[in-house]
Amino acid sequence: MKARRLSEARDFVGSPEFVSWWESLVKVRTERDEARERHDELLSQAMLMDFRAELTQKYAIDTLYRAGDLEDEAAQMMVEAQQVENDSLKTVADFEEQRYRVSENWFRSCALEKRLEELGDKRLEAERRLAIAEGALKRDVELEVARLGAEEKRQEKLLGQATQEKEREERVKEKLWQEAERAWTRSMELSLLIAEHKVRGRKVRLEAERLFKQAEERKQRAVKLRAEADAAAQERETAEKKAAEVLARIREFGCALGEEHLYFRQKDNQRRAWCVPLVEDAESYNIEIKPLTVYSIDHKRGVEFIEPAVEVAESEEEGDRRFEEYFLKGRQGRVREGDERKSA
């Protein structure tokens, strides 16, 4: 690292060779930063596309399972519909048999009613004859009236039993008919639901196929983006090497090279060095630094504490005045109001 005076350092920074090198450095650094940004962007897009492809693939699989569930439900309902159909046929057969029983009971009741009417008519006729009968004939008529009355009561009892049985069989018939209607209603409901599930199953399966296709397209897009990212990585590596080569050329001028600063030893003070920033930074250091400006640093603390470069003081008082003036100024080089009043 070559020792220089402040004037020599400033002359060097303003020389055509250094300016040309600086312009080359700015150019290659810009290209490097653009290559980095492009590589990072393509890599992010590739990773995002991979994630979207994987997510779409998972959603497609879930959708396909959902289509299978709909088809399974349709198959289960078809089994149930077949069972309902079989049960309804049996119920209808039972209903027809029960309807035959009800008809028989109805005919029986009608016959008993007719027989009861005939017995009533005969009893009334016998009672009229009893009213005019005399002697032994009257006794015979009384026996006939008694017999007809007993037979009429027996027929009334049989008719009551037949009526109750007919009503009971009628209720059974109505119950069977209601069961048959419920079976037909359920059968129709299942038939409609089966058709809907089949249509939905086809619709969801088509959606799954669309998602699988979309996932494959995104995978291909991710592969393409990753290839572009790999190419951008090579461009980035080339740009970084080129920037490093341009940056390393400054060593030919006898300076120490950092990533963001150049350093020269101070010829008049072996414990201090000149620092030339290659970046502009208003936040990271103790003062705002600008590129191609010469600053003074201590060899131990380095850029942890940067001071503006000043000429060597002609006298001790001049040096003290400059030192005090530096510490009275803010980061932007403006004197604070309180310090101005103190100086006044």
Q: Mind explaining what this structure looks like?
A:
α2 packs antiparallel against α3. The model is unreliable at 330-344 (pLDDT under 50). With 344 residues, the protein is α+β, with helices and mostly antiparallel strands. The chain has helices at residues 6-13, 16-132, 136-248, 316-328, 337-343; strands at 3-4, 256-257, 261-266, 269-277, 295-298, 302-308. Helix content is 75%, strand content 9%. The longest helix has 117 residues, at 16-132. The protein contains 5 helices and 6 strands, in the order βαααβββββαα.
Helices and strands in order, then pairings?
Layout: E1 3-4, H1 6-13, H2 16-132, H3 136-248, E2 256-257, E3 261-266, E4 269-277, E5 295-298, E6 302-308, H4 316-328, H5 337-343
Parallel strand pairs: 1-3
Antiparallel strand pairs: 2-3, 3-4, 4-5, 5-6
Helix pairs in contact: 2-3
Supply the CATH architecture of the largest domain. Orthogonal Bundle
Characterize the overall form. Answer: rod-shaped
Structural class: alpha+beta
Helicity level, as a percent range?
A: over 70%
Number of E-state strands:
6
Report, as a whole number of angstroms, the end-to-end distance: 44 Å
Please give the radius of gyration in angstroms. Answer: 57 Å
Outline the biggest β-sheet. 6 strands, mixed
Q: Into which percentage range does the β-strand content fall? A: 5-15%
Assembly state: single chain
- Per CATH, the class of the largest domain reads Mainly Alpha
Count of discrete domains:
2
Which fold name corresponds to the CATH topology of the largest domain? Helix Hairpins
Helix count equals 5
The ordered string of helix (H) and strand (E) elements is EHHHEEEEEHH
Low-confidence stretches: 330-344
